Amino acid sequence: MNELMSVMNELLSIKPVVLWSDVLIYILVASLGLFFYQLSKNPLARQRWRTVFHSRAGVASFIVILFYLLIALLDSLHYRAPLEKTEGSDEVHYSQEVHSVLDVVLTELRNKDEKTYSAPFAIYSFAKENMQTDDGVVYRDFPRLANAGQHLADEADHGKDVFVRSMKALLVAAFISAVIIGLHIAWRQRQQRQQCSRGLTTQQTLPWGTIYLTQSLLVLACCWVLELSKVYHILGTDKVGQDVLYWSIKAIRTGVLIGTLATLLTLPLAIVLGISAGYFKGWVDDVVQYIYTTLSSIPGILLIAASVLLIDVYIETHPEQFNLVAVRADFKFLALCFILGMTSWTGLCRLLRAETLKVSQLDYVQAAHAFGVGHNRIIYRHILPNITHIILIALVLDFSVFVLAEAVLSYIGVGVDPSMASWGNMINEARSELSRDPLVWWSVAAAFVLMFVLVLAANLFSDRVRDAFDPRSA
Amino acid sequence: MELLQVENLSIELLPGKYQQAGRLLVKPVSFSIRAGEILALVGESGSGKSLTSLALMRLLPEALAIRSGRVQLAGTDVFDLTEAQMNSVRGRMAAMVFQEPQSSLNPVQTIEQQIGEVLRLHKGLSGAALREKIISLLHEVGINDAEQRLGWYPHQLSGGQKQRVVIAIALACEPQLLIADEPTTALDVTIQKQILELLNELRRKRQLAVLLITHDMGVVAQMADRVAVMRYGEIVEQAAAREFFAAPKHEYSRALIHSLPDRRHFLSAPAQSEPLLQLKDVRVWFAQRKGILQRVVGHTKAVDGISLSIGRGETLALVGESGSGKSTAGRAILSLEPLAGGELYFAGERIDQLSQRQFLPLRKRIQVIFQDPFSSMNPRMNVRDILAEGMIALKVEPDAEKREQRLQALLQRVGLEVAHLDRFPHEFSGGQRQRLAIARAIAVEPELIICDEPTSALDVSIRGQVLQLLQELQQEMGLSYLFITHDLSIIPHLAHRVAVMKDGVIVEQGDTEQIMTAPQHDYTRSLLASVPVSPV
């Protein structure tokens, strides 16, 4: 009871912090919810999306994307913990460090720094150190890690311990999955009985088997990570001894955000300018074409580097606006998304202009003209729906491109703030790690795997969406 | 001696992702062709006639396969050959000419290169001999100044010349069998006549066996020695041309022959009243722009001073070949193109100077039906939205409930069902779509409908039904039509008056009977002479 009270107290005493990128991610999640709510009211769109979710790859990749999004959301609920009160002062001071809910979940990972590199699952450090025996003899060897495998009575039990703990995680995961799936199956059967009693024919169902499997695998991964990370560094540690797994999970938020934000920023410009150029032609077309021809003949990297430097200067000259490291990093990050978006709308704009030119010559647009339908309505009803497939495809391709672009930009030093976890920063560090002997591969591998899974899921999902929405396949 | 013998050939669609069992697209068909003979394989789209010809050459697309049958070409069984042997059969023994000369030729190679390629490959010619052979081939297919045109690219040739080049390529290796798949469908009637004459002459000179695939009974009547009628993948009738036209046995054959123009019955013009639509010296010019400032350097005169008038309840056919400016004239009446000069009157009021907003009330009174029923409807809208769009935009029926009733009545009027309201355009056949397009146009109760080639994308049997519907609607609603067409054969059934257009001007206009029986202008006469007619 006392414990609960102290937890409650602690919860009440924290100070929530809302960064601008947090707001954007809340909006993103909310609009996703709104989208599904709208879907339930529109039978036509629902039919189309149903074909997406009826394919195994589609639904599996969607669940993976949702999982990433969930992590990003957890990582976006920020707060500052209160510092211990100094004596004789009633004022509460808050820590300069900003943490998120995800940090609470991953406390085990966060607070177990080593001195330097260590390999995955290792119990000894990667670098030799000078040590002393009890009788004062100095010798040089690999030291034991401070936070990995300390519980092992006998080092020979290392492999066995990992196995036992994995099995334990498996059992826990199987139990959780079984409960979730069992509850869901029971619910489905009740639904079905109700439908039968109302005389409704059962509609074709989603590939539940695939959904259960994906869900179970994700639960298993979570359990395994949480169980083993208590006593080991699953993906090793980096140069300053921080847990690689922790940082690569933290980087999910950066990756998801940079992908979606930069893409969403390109969309309005590309769609509005592209469609107006293709639809109105004449001087509008000329102006738009001049703009994007000019913009795309300046090297994108140059623009980005110049803008990032400008932002750095702005931050330096306005220190009062950026009282926290996190706020500064966040501002820089948003600016980067914005610049990426601004420099890469030209490709999509060009595509949309060409497609609009084509579509606006089709008879149904001419027929709408002959009915005196207004320009706005023609664009909204006739042009936009018939170029949506291009937008959807571009959206997901751009998403992958931006996630990868972040890595490149960090490499040349104009990426996100070094204090922010990002796959780009991890890959950047791999420059020196990969030239070591023996190789330090785990850092870059962790970034690669997490990035790969995200981009692959996005690509698979986009394929299904395109299949469902392309008018030619209908 | 039969050159080509096809026995019980059947083609199936292999089972794929979307269907469990294979489906037979061509049921066992048998036919044969002698050297020097033209066999016309007639049928509507989807009847399997093109598939049959592709199967003869073993060029079927991947999803299809030959299920059974034998094809013997000059004594060798085509299906026994290896792919390498087959390659030498294609071109040397049998050659193909396709419908669209534009896409059969490579746009970045000269004529000499394209004809030469085949000769070099199959005959091993080179140098002066090759060039000589190419020139003689071009002469043979009737291209003048062959020596000068060797270095030309396809875009420098007209449609008819391109088709001649395609035929020259087909003939380069002296094949014994020529498969011509709708060789004249993409061409204007006057050019069609020349190409058909060329084919006829070639087969006589070279003793070619020709498999002529077509949907046009006029072409069949003019060319074929024997006729095979195909429908739903089956040959329903096969006979010598003379017998076939004299006494068709199958019901379907009779329907096809019936679709040929009847030059004896004409519609009489309704009593003349005040003209509904009047064009006075209308000009539509497109500016040619050049340079970085897009200055106007000249004009393309698509329509260069035409005058005509249409009375209430009257149909005026505007006839011309592609590029004559007839569609542009229609668009100008709809105010979709600005006029460069002239005057437009509708029901006595001048309308060419109205702004788009002022034109809005007229949109209700002037409507349009387009040629291609596949592109004239937004694939993402259902039938209800498509039909209601104009009614909402023009505020014909703002009340949703009454509008729904109107829509249902409209669908039934054009011969569709009420249940079709919730479907999407791709679920309909071409003829049904054209009915929908008609329903969309009459939904706003117009007085004048501009029909821009509304039947040229349809099969002959469906064409008749759609024209019938248009005529019924004219009688019921007192509609006037401006019927833009290149197809003279449908005019006697349909139009009260005819205007013939060439290069942006009207060369002749008058009552249908007068134009069709006693044309004054040379161009009209040559147009009429090019229309293939039934021998009966």
> What's the overall average pLDDT of chain B, rounded?
85
Using only CA atoms, what is the Rg of chain B?
Answer: 26 Å
Beta-strand percent range of chain A:
under 5%
The CATH architecture of the domain at 245-469 in chain A can be given as: Orthogonal Bundle
CATH class of the domain at 245-469 in chain A: Mainly Alpha
Query: In total, how many beta strands of chain B?
Result: 20
> What would you call the quaternary organization?
heterodimer
Strand order of the largest sheet of chain B: 6-7-8-3-9-10
Helices and strands of chain A: which structural class?
mainly alpha
Main attributes?
heterodimer; A: 474 residues; mainly alpha; MetI-like fold; three-stranded antiparallel sheet; two-stranded antiparallel sheet; 17 helices; 5 strands; globular; B: 536 residues; alpha/beta; Rossmann fold; six-stranded mixed sheet; 20 helices
What features would you describe in this structure?
The complex is a heterodimer of chains A (474) and B (536). By secondary structure, chain A is mainly α. Chain A has a domain at 245-469: MetI-like (MetI-like fold), CATH 1.10.3720. Chain A is built from 17 helices and five strands. Chain A has helices spanning 2-13, 20-41, 43-54, 56-74, 101-105, 107-110, 158-197, 208-228, 244-280, 282-296, 300-317, 325-343, 346-360, 363-370, 375-411, 423-433, 442-469, and strands at 15-17, 78-80, 99-100, 129-132, 138-141. In chain A, a hairpin with a 5-residue loop joins strand 4 and strand 5 (138-141). In chain A, helix 3 packs across helix 17 (442-469), helix 13 (346-360) packs antiparallel against helix 15 and helix 15 (375-411) packs antiparallel against helix 17. Chain B has 536 residues and is an alpha/beta fold. Chain B has a domain at 1-93 and 209-260: Rossmann fold. A six-stranded mixed sheet of chain B has the order 6-7-8-3-9-10, sandwiched between helices. Chain B has a six-stranded mixed sheet with strand order 16-17-18-13-19-20, sandwiched between helices. Chain B has a four-stranded antiparallel sheet with strand order 2-1-4-5, covered by helices on one side. The chains are: A mainly alpha (474), B alpha/beta (536). Chains A and B meet through helix 14 and helix 15 of A and helix 13, strand 16 and helix 14 of B.
